[in-house]
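The data layer described in this paper is built around a simple, fixed record for each protein. Such a record has a labelled line for the sequence and another for the backbone structure tokens. For reference, a complete record is included directly beneath this paragraph.
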Amino acid sequence: MQRLASSRRLLQAALAPGRANSSLAAAAVAAPAPENGVAPKMPHFGYTPPPYEGPRAEEIFRKRTEFLSPSFSHYYDRPLNIVDGKMQYLFDEDGRRYLDAFGGIATVCCGHCHPDVVEAIINQAKRIQHSTILYLNHAIADFAEALASKMPGDLKVVFFTNSGTEANELALMIARLYTGCNDIISLRNGYHGNAAGTMGATAQSNWKFNVVQSGVHHALNPDPYRGAFGSDGEKYARDVQEIIEFGTTGRVGGFISEAIQGVGGIVELAPGYLPAAYNMVRKAGGLCIADEVQVGVARTGSHFWGFEGHGVIPDIVTMAKGIGNGIPIGAVVTTPEIAQVLTRRCYFNTFGGNPVSTAGGHAVLKVLEKEKLQENAFVVGSYLKERLNMLKEKHDIIGDVRGRGFLLGVELVTDHQAKTPAKAEISQVMNQMKDMGVLVGKGGFYGNVFRITPPLCFTKEDSDFFIEVMDIALSKL
């Protein structure tokens, strides 16, 4: 983890005019222009994708409609056919370049098709793509050791899964087995996955089907923007104690939370909340689970893991997304003592620890270190947040700017006092930004929050372009 003092010095340098952060400077493929006017100039980039000769967007959409699940949604009035990617940029079927400020939902950390990660995947695939953990293979052991070296305390036993949902399912089961208690406490507005146990822990009706979801209690969300107690984390934490006293036997299995809620709209937990909540849960015999699927792996910049920003050490940590840079992989990390509960029965995951996935994941950690991407997330992410706050002063529709590093949220509201969600307006702005060459996500319970989660190689020049595009789009409302 890079030292914060050093990062602050770099931030001051980044804020100075004329700083060039991009290591790839060359003629860029032209970005699409908006329907009315000329798009701002996108930063130069030294890559041109090969010509695309596959099916067009219309044909792909027809097949998708016929053969894929009707539950699948898509962004934009005219869905994009993305066919190529390099670092912080994506390219469509016509070779048009887009700045990716969403990173595949906070997943691409090193950059699209990073050569070191691609090389590790190819080299491993040439040797063996899959065997099973019933045999030895150094790829899984090496990656587990590397992950454990990034963890504090006694968190050093790793169990690999295929996704964040799987990782959280396993973590909840471990907590219940270890403590002998079924009751789990999670936060309102949190999202932890879409399987049986994780859907129960998720606390947004948008993501919950009418299936059996038992044994989970949802505590008040310590939301500094919309919450009843503002930024007073300890006041919110009192609800955890009341849940323990009035909703359980006085003993609980565990507590699960994100340090910054991703799907929930990049909501930072109020300061002081996690230390108080962890203390209450542990006194009730429970384990504390940190869901680092979106917030972890250097994304906040100031720390490698989101929970570190709150001064706590969990009993179990879950992760996915960023640890694979787009490879389907997740992991649960816990202590040797807690990990022993899985030896009571046979527990197995066919593809968890697949050699190709773990070789790629190990390469991701090496790239993060070699290219100082955590430092970049702090420096450039802080610069971007500062510029977003300047936009907030200019555009009344921006109600809140929040987050850390490259996990940033911008909430749009039509009324600052009532905090009325600007759901229709955000879709209009997103379409305008896409037409000018910027792709960004959205989320939050009301669907009115921009989720800005780019690859960690995002530069100051990219940030300036992003701000200019968002400024123009907001001005057209």
Remarks:
- Residues 166 and 330 are 7 Å apart (CA to CA).
